[in-house]
Each structure stands twice: as C-alpha cells, then as structure tokens.
C-alpha cells in the first residue's frame, strides 16, 4: 500500500528573508484580490476542509505537530519555521503559529445563494471586518445558509474577517449586491424578511416566532451605530430583540447570534 504521506512537502525554513515566504510577508499592510490568508490552526483546518485551492501553509513546530496527522495536509507545501522567524515574516506575533494562503473564492450570483436556502443573513453597511467575521461564525453555526452583503460591507475574505469567523466564512455561500436588488430577489423567491432594530416600536422577535417562523426567512442587520437605513426599515418588518431599556443596543454580531438562535429554537 502506498504511503499516504508520500506527497507531503514539509520544508524547513531558517531564514526570514527566504523568498518562498513572500506570500506571508508584512500582512498587516496587505490586502489582496486573488488570495486569502487563513490564520490560526482551527482556521487552517477549516480551510483544508473547504473546496478552496491551498497554495501553501506556514507553521511553527508546535502548530505542525498539531496538524501533521491530517491526511488533507498532504500535497501542499508546508513551511515550518521557528516562532521568531514566523513573527519576523508576517510582521506581528502570530502566537497561534499557523497561517495558510489560498485562492480567493469569487462571490456567488445571488440566485445561486438563494436557490436551496431557508435562512439567509442580509447585511447593510457592515464595514468592520471583525464584526463581519463574528456574524459569519454565528450564521454558520446557527443555521443560516448564506450571506448577502451590500456593496458597502467589508471584504468577507480579508484576513481578519476569516480569522474571527474561525474559518466558517469559507463554508458560507456569499453574494454581494445592492440592498434593493437583494430584497427584490428575496421577495420573488418567497422569503419573509425581518429587519433587526433596537427601536422600541418594533415587534419583539419572540412574538413573531410564536406566531410561526416562515419556511424561508431572511434576517437583515445594519452597521454598528447607525443600524439599518430608513430605506430598509420602511419596507421590511421591523423586529427587535428585547433588552433592558437602559442599554442602547447589542453588538451586531451578538444580535445576529441571538436572532438566529431564537429562530432555530422554534424551527423543526
């Protein structure tokens, strides 16, 4: 029987100036339209479990020890370097000791994202990469089948977005379209849309859930601070998560998790 590790290419790196590590160099100052970076052992594992083409992986010895038993690590260039060398290359303390570079996925046509979906998260103006990552993590974990971003949202495949999502961003179908176009498509596909807002005159989410969760439901959320625009709130069912009166609002990532959890708890 062939050795299942025979295609593995583990390459020891001792010099931070080694040109083979250029894809990882000075990452805080870099954005990309053709690759993404998956940072942290769990995120690298989620990348390996996705359909994306992995270009290479950079690990400290400790991270390599954790990941070396994975069969899907085989076939990729795996660079192993000491923590100090890795830190010098990426430009910060990569204390988790693992990062990979992969082909960046294209966002999908909206119709493709909606085709078989029952739960969709629609985002307007989410321009903070970490909030976007937190939303994706909650969405994936609590039953959403895809994300629809308006053009003002942050890059879903930016390094921090992917990291905060714990790699779940790589397992969600994502479309990016103007919000009016998204609503027209959702309406045509038979989705109900609930616009999340802290407004006191909005319907409590528990009340709507008790009346019956629609078979196809889109939950819409806006940016920290301004929230959803009036153009959205005036055309959608306004829904609030009950909270203490002296609290302004929930973080948008937490609000996503709370809303989806309440919906999931009442969905067969």
Notes on the protein architecture:
It is built from 10 helices and 12 strands. The chain is α/β, with parallel strands linked by helices. It has 2 domains: 9-103, 60s Ribosomal Protein L30, Chain: A, CATH 3.30.1330; 110-265, SPOUT methyltransferase, trefoil knot domain (Alpha/beta knot). It has a 7-stranded parallel beta sheet with strand order 8-7-6-11-9-12-10, sandwiched between helices. α5 links the parallel β6 (119-124) and β7 (146-149). α5 (129-141) packs parallel to α10 (252-265). The chain is elongated.
Question: Summed up, what is this model?
Answer:
With 268 residues, this protein is of the alpha/beta class. The protein has 10 helices and 12 strands. The strands form 2 sheets. Strands 8-7-6-11-9-12-10 form a 7-stranded parallel sheet, with helices on both faces.
Features:
alpha/beta; seven-stranded parallel β-sheet; 60s Ribosomal Protein L30, Chain: A; Alpha/beta knot
List the helices and strands and how they pair.
Elements: E1 9-12, E2 35-39, H1 41-48, E3 54-59, H2 61-67, E4 77-80, H3 83-90, E5 98-103, H4 110-114, E6 119-124, H5 129-141, E7 146-149, H6 159-164, E8 174-176, H7 179-188, E9 192-196, E10 203-204, H8 205-211, E11 217-222, H9 230-233, E12 237-240, H10 252-265
Parallel strand pairs: 1-4, 3-4, 6-7, 6-11, 7-8, 9-11, 9-12, 10-12
Antiparallel strand pairs: 2-5, 3-5
Helix pairs in contact: 5-10
């Amino acid at each position: 029987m062939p050795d299942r590790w025979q295609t593995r290419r583990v390459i020891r790196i001792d010099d931070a100036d080694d040109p083979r590590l250029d894809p990882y160099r000075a990452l805080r100052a870099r954005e990309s339209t053709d690759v993404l970076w998956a940072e942290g052992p769990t995120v690298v594992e989620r990348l390996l479990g996705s359909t994306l083409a992995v270009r290479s992986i950079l690990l400290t010895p400790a991270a390599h020890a954790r990941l070396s038993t994975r069969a899907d690590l085989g076939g990729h260039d795996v660079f192993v370097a000491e923590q100090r060398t890795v830190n010098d290359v990426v430009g910060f303390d990569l204390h988790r000791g693992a990062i990979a570079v992969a082909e960046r996925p294209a966002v999908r046509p909206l119709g493709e994202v909606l085709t078989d979906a029952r739960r969709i998260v629609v985002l307007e103006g989410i321009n903070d990469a970490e909030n976007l990552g937190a939303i994706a993590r909650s969405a994936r974990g609590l039953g959403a089948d895809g994300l629809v971003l308006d053009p003002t949202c942050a890059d879903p495949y930016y390094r921090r977005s992917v990291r905060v999502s714990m790699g779940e961003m790589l397992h969600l179908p994502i479309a990016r379209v103007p919000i009016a176009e998204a609503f027209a498509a959702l309406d045509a596909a038979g989705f109900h849309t609930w616009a999340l807002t802290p407004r006191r005159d909005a319907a409590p989410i528990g009340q709507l859930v008790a009346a019956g969760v629609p078979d196809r439901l889109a939950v819409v959320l806006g940016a920290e601070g301004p929230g959803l625009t009036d153009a959205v709130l005036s055309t959608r069912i306004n829904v609030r998560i009950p909270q203490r009166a002296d609290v302004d609002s929930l973080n948008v990532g937490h609000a996503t998790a709370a809303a989806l959890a309440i919906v999931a708890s009442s969905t067969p």
